[in-house]
Amino acid sequence: MSVVAGLALTPIPAQAAPVGTGTIEGTLTTAKGDPVAGVRVQLSSSAGHNDTLPLVFTDEAGHYSAAPLPAGRYRVGFYFPETMSTQWVPRAARESAATWFTVADGRTTVVDESLFATGGLDVTLVEPDTGPVQEFCVEAIGDLYLKTGCTTTGTVSLTGLPIGSYLVTATGGTGEGVKMAFADVVEDSVVPVEIQPW
């Protein structure tokens, strides 16, 4: 009798409720509203397991659609390998400053974004004894941004840099070591930067 009673009182393990899925979609544009194609969408889930989320890129119209996504909260970013940077929504350089978006079962959450305004740098290297250098390489390092380039013609043109301040370093020419200068990238402008050894 007591055995039967013991079995009757044994709790049945609760079954985990199935998690529904939804979609995040939107459009990525430049600061002036033009579509941006071929950019990888970076999704970050509050539940973790980000490596299991779908790999998505913007199409020719700048549109993207990420599905199926387990219901929950997500941050959305756009990764740029040229500058080794991610722009998080809304216009944040760091993920910690990004907004959480909720995905609900059977629903579509729209997340549009426009890129930071950009400009460019035209970098030249001048040696004190020999003048302009034809062959050299540069790195432009900004707040979470990095872009590189090399030249054999005397000028490295770096385009698509988010506006802000950059440390520009150059290697090449005569002598050893790295030469550097500071420059500000201005919206829709190409700023000339002449680097001379210190």
TrEMBL record:
Single annotated GO MF = carbohydrate binding
Question: Where does the signal sequence lie?
Answer: 1-16
Looking at the keywords, is ATP-binding present?
Answer: no
Q: Which SUPFAM superfamilies match?
A: Starch-binding domain-like
The UniProt keywords, alphabetically, are:
Signal
Keyword Signal listed: yes
**Entries under Pfam families matching the protein:** CarboxypepD_reg
Could you tell me which InterPro entries the record lists for this protein? Carb-bd-like_fold
Know the name of this protein? Alpha-amylase
Query: Organism classification, top ranks?
Result: Bacteria, Bacillati, Actinomycetota, Actinomycetes, Micromonosporales
